[in-house]
Amino acid sequence: MDPGRTVKLTPSSTWLAPKLLRSPSNSSTFPPAVACSCPEPYRLGRRLRQISVAAARRVRCHRSMSEGSGVAQPPVGVGLEQLRGAAAGCRACELWQDTTQTVFGEGPETARIVFVGEQPGDQEDRRGEPFVGPAGRLLDRALADAGIDRRDSYVTNSVKHFSHTVKGKRRIHQTPRPEHLRACRPWLEAEFAVLQPEVVVALGATAAKSLISPSFRITRERGRLLPWTVPGAPAPSEDDDEDAPHQTWILATTHPSAILRTPDEARAAAYDALVADLGVVAGALP
């Protein structure tokens, strides 16, 4: 393509430009941080403009997060910080549009345990950190009672954006749909690839069904260590030498938010059951 050629935007465009593409000071100038080298036309709100493809070659393409395919494409061979930075621009599903930010996992790359929840909540979305709301505080207490230091663990979610509906001034949680889990799955797998955990804990039914089996039932099968293969990693065999990665285990338990919703008279027993499940995890680590 001729680098000096301009592309005329047409109403048939299927791409929606981010808000930052509009420059309040000069509507014909695009901030270089969000311009795109892709020749496909943008539709900027309701007004059609011409953009210079030559000027846009300087920056990353808007398709880098698989906006068209509906499945994220994380960078390969990088650490958690690079993954976190890339995920901040993810547009693989529509959930980013009504949220504050991507909420990526947190914890050291040396973590032996990875806790996977469903999705961030309202406070997590505002702060950009996982498990910092009421459910996160309850999880912290349960981990301490089970003898697990959260600072040595990694906490994340199956979906990195807050799925919700607005009622008045409140944002009400909505269970993420299968397409949201599918779109976000590569981010979770990229985290696993870096961490190579010894134990994965699925917090709640959504995470358990996604990681173990769609037919998995928390009420019947919680608290049991099950052999599990990290996505993308070869399954261990008897022929592996002692330096090869060891078996990874997965355990499912209730999500802390479910305990908060439990009636008062049954909440203490529900909390004790969570601590007992986490105790199984603690006992599995020498």
Gyration radius, rounded: 22 Å
Tell me what the CATH architecture of the largest domain is.
3-Layer(aba) Sandwich
Number of strands: 9
Structural class: alpha/beta
Estimate nothing, just give the exact number of structural domains: 2
Alpha-carbon distance between the termini? 60 Å
Trace the largest sheet across and list its strands: 4-3-7-9-8
CATH C-level name of the largest domain: Alpha Beta
Integer average pLDDT = 78
Give the percentage of residues in beta strands.
Answer: 5-15%
The H-level CATH homologous superfamily of the largest domain, spelled out, is: Uracil-DNA glycosylase-like domain
Taken from the alpha-carbon principal axes, the silhouette is globular
Please outline the major beta sheet: 5 strands, mixed
Oligomer: single chain
Count of alpha and pi helical runs:
9
Please give a structural write-up.
The chain has 286 residues and is of the alpha/beta class. It folds into two domains: 1-60, no CATH class; 80-284, 3-Layer(aba) Sandwich (Uracil-DNA Glycosylase, subunit E), CATH 3.40.470. The protein has helices at residues 53-56, 80-87, 122-127, 134-146, 178-195, 205-211, 218-221, 256-260, 264-284; strands spanning 6-8, 50-52, 113-117, 153-157, 164-167, 170-173, 199-203, 226-228, 248-253. The strands form three sheets. A five-stranded mixed β-sheet has the order 4-3-7-9-8, with helices on both faces. Strands 1-2 form a two-stranded antiparallel sheet. A hairpin with a 2-residue loop joins strand 5 (164-167) and strand 6 (170-173). The longest helix is centred in the C-terminal third of the chain and has 21 residues, at 264-284. The chain is globular, with a radius of gyration of 22 Å.
